[in-house]
Every structure is written in C-alpha cells, then in structure tokens.
Amino acid sequence: MNLAYLITESDKDVEILQRLLPQNLSQNIKFIAGESSYRARSLASSLLATRKTPVALVLDADTDNESQIFERHDLINYVLNQVSSRIPYQVFMVIPQLEIVFLQDKSLIEKIVQRQFNDLEWQLAQSKPKEFLETVFGNQKQINTRIFENIHEEEIKLLQQSPLIQEIIHFLSSLITSSVAIN
C-alpha cells in the first residue's frame, strides 16, 4: 500500500531522498521523478486529483530570492489546493537545490572529498550546490554514488538533521499517524 507519493524533479533527487529518509517511512512511499519542475508539479496535481493519495512535492528553488520563492511556492500551493479535495499534500521548496543537504556540514564534505575548501569555494557551494559538487567530483562517477559510498550510518544521521529532511520526515510521519488513527 502506498501511503503517499514523493515527487521530485529528477532520479538523482529521488536517490538522495531514498537514502536519507528513514526506512520505516520510505517503505510505504512511492518515489517518482518528474524529470523537470513542470512535470513534477503536473504529476503531483494529477495524482492528488485521481489517486486521492497524499503527495510530497520536492522542488529546487534554483534561487535564494525570498520573494521569488514565496511567489512560486504560493502559486504551486494554489494549484494543488484546487485539486486536492482535502487530501494532504506539502510542497517543499529546496533553497537553492536538493544537493544542499550534502553541504550542511563542511567537515563532512571535506572528509568525503579529502580536501579542505576555502571561504570562496564554500560560498559557491552554498549558492550553487549542484554545480559545486559537479566541479569537485568531476564526471568520474555519479555524485550521489561517490558521497554515499564514503559515508556511514552516523554521517547519514547527521545529514538527516538537515531542516529540509526533518520537514519531510515530519510530514510523512503525520500521514502514518493519520492512517493509524483512521484504521
């Protein structure tokens, strides 16, 4: 049984969330890559309208401009609210991109990459995390694979403390609680 759908913009985003969300939550979640922001939003809207199943929509803001983020978030919420029929959903706007979860702890990423970053590099990392990680890791292997191959359970727990991951966990946990209360 699918408790909810978790929709992202890409397969790489799905992979990150599958690895970082606790197993007890992710086992009842259907992860779907929308392949673009527009398609992810459209898919969320369609699933809410037709499947009547809760949806978590995770999108990159691709900016740190608060007014642009608020406006986009508000518009997406409006559209989803029109089709939701009171089915729970939540839009998670990741500022600026989902890869920021890997950069919550500078020492962790320095350990994985086996080098230290100066202040300018770290500023780039915070403003353009995807670009930064592509530059640091090159195209030898997928970034996610390299990162997850070089961390252990305790580092995953550290990454799970990211505000975004905590918000997603809270939303999905509330669905489990609601489901148990109904049954």
Detailed description of the structure:
This protein is of the alpha/beta class and 183 residues long. It is built from ten helices and four strands. It has helices at residues 11-20, 23-26, 37-50, 66-84, 106-113, 119-127, 129-137, 143-149, 153-159, 163-182; strands at residues 4-8, 29-33, 55-60, 89-94. A four-stranded parallel β-sheet has the order 2-1-3-4, with helices on both faces. Helix 4 links the parallel strand 3 (55-60) and strand 4 (89-94). Helix 3 (37-50) packs parallel to helix 4 (66-84). The two termini are 13 Å apart. The relative contact order is 0.15.
User: Strand count, sense and closure of the main sheet?
Assistant: 4 strands, parallel
Element string (H = helix, E = strand): EHHEHEHEHHHHHH
Residue stretches low in confidence (pLDDT < 50, at least 5 long) are none
Overall residue-averaged pLDDT value = 92
Question: What fraction, in percent, of the residue positions are helical?
Answer: 55-70%
Strand order of the largest sheet: 2-1-3-4
Q: Total strand count, please? A: 4
Oligomer: single chain
Number of helices: 10
Query: How far is the N terminus from the C terminus?
Result: 13 Å
Shape: globular
Strand content: 5-15%
CA radius of gyration is: 17 Å
Based on helices, strands and strand pairing, what is the structural class? alpha/beta
